[in-house]
Design brief:
The chain is α/β, with parallel strands linked by helices and 314 residues long. The chain is built from 12 helices and 10 strands. Strands 1, 2, 3, 4, 5, 6, 7, 8, 9 and 10 form a 10-stranded mixed β-sheet that branches. The protein starts with a strand and ends with a helix. The model has no long low-confidence stretch (mean pLDDT 95).
Length: 314
């Protein structure tokens, strides 16, 4: 018997996108798919759009959860699949993604399959471009994490991955205290427990970019605190699983990026991050930014260049 795959989707005010996302799931070449959507307190027309999909077998739960992490856990509890894909309500799947990922897993309950990804804009798939990364290959799961964290910009978009339910249950599901970059913490924890990552080429995730009000663009104190806790928790999971010099350097680098990103704000959180970086042995990550920032950094140092950059942005 072929395994059932459950696609778990949190939806909050995604009226303009969720139909296309669901169509990309329902048109998969793999047929043993269960779709569970949690409509998390939407105030737009998402409810009406989702109700139209119930006739096509989609399980819709209308429940105010208050965060994507809580909605994902709610969908997981409702699901029954042997394998789980968490998928956002504004992205699109390649038509053969799930079929190829199930094939690569080949019945394993220790490995995780993943695909590449790229961005598209303005509802126009002709703008889609892949974003190739060195880790797009079969790898030991922990080594994949280390290499992904080394340059401090890991991409762990939920729709890329297909994981065994048993592995997700072992790692404990999503951390409901987190909002911003909750996916970093979850996949760091999940992959720290996994054995291997199996890469599926030519079946990318189509990542919708440029949305106004995107969660990833939130810079409130609560959002920054979530990013802070996610980074500390996620890196600690990897350290607990594999505590060598290279792993510590990779974890220090991803924490160093927090300092670069939020300087000069949130001094209390940045101080704690810098203390942790020191405990890990220091970071080798250099500050990054547009060409003007890099030129100014050479003369003024990165901190003054960052202040000037922010002043000019208003």
């Amino acid at each position: 018997m072929i395994p059932v795959v459950s696609v778990c989707i949190p939806c909050h005010n995604a009226e303009s996108y969720v139909a296309a996302a669901l169509d990309s799931v329902l048109s998969q070449s793999y047929r043993a798919i269960e779709v569970v959507v949690v409509n998390d307190g939407s105030t737009d027309g998402s409810s009406e759009v989702l109700n139209d999909f119930e006739d096509r077998g989609v399980v819709v739960i209308h429940e105010k959860c208050g965060s994507a992490s809580k909605a994902r856990n709610r969908a997981l509890r409702e699901s029954r699949g042997e394998y789980i894909k968490f998928f956002d309500a504004d992205d699109l799947l390649h038509p053969q993604m799930i079929e190829k990922q199930v094939e690569r897993l080949n019945g394993s309950h220790q490995d995780v399959a993943f695909s590449g990804w790229g961005r598209f804009y303005n509802d126009d798939l002709s703008t889609f471009e892949l974003s190739p990364q060195p880790v797009w290959r079969d790898m030991d799961a922990r080594e994949w994490l280390v290499e992904s964290l080394m340059d401090a910009r890991p991409m762990m978009q939920p729709g890329q991955f297909l994981a065994p339910r048993s592995l997700i249950e072992k790692c404990g599901g999503w951390d409901e205290t987190l909002s911003l970059i909750d996916d970093f913490e979850f996949f760091s924890r999940l992959l720290s427990l996994a054995k291997n990552l199996k890469f599926c080429s030519d079946t990318p995730l189509f990542y919708r970019s440029g949305l106004v009000g995107s969660l990833s663009k939130r810079k409130s104190r609560d959002a920054v605190e979530s990013a802070f806790h996610s980074l500390l928790k996620g890196t600690q999971c990897l350290i607990n699983a594999q505590c060598d010099k290279r792993t510590k350097e990779a974890c220090a680098n991803v924490l160093q990026d927090f300092e670069y990103m939020y300087y000069p704000d949130h001094e209390d959180l940045r101080r704690l991050v810098l203390d942790r970086i020191k405990e890990l042995g220091g970071s080798t990550l250099r500050p990054d930014g547009p060409p003007n920032f890099k030129r100014l950094s050479c003369f003024l140092g990165w901190k003054l260049a960052r202040r000037l950059q922010r002043f000019l942005r208003g």
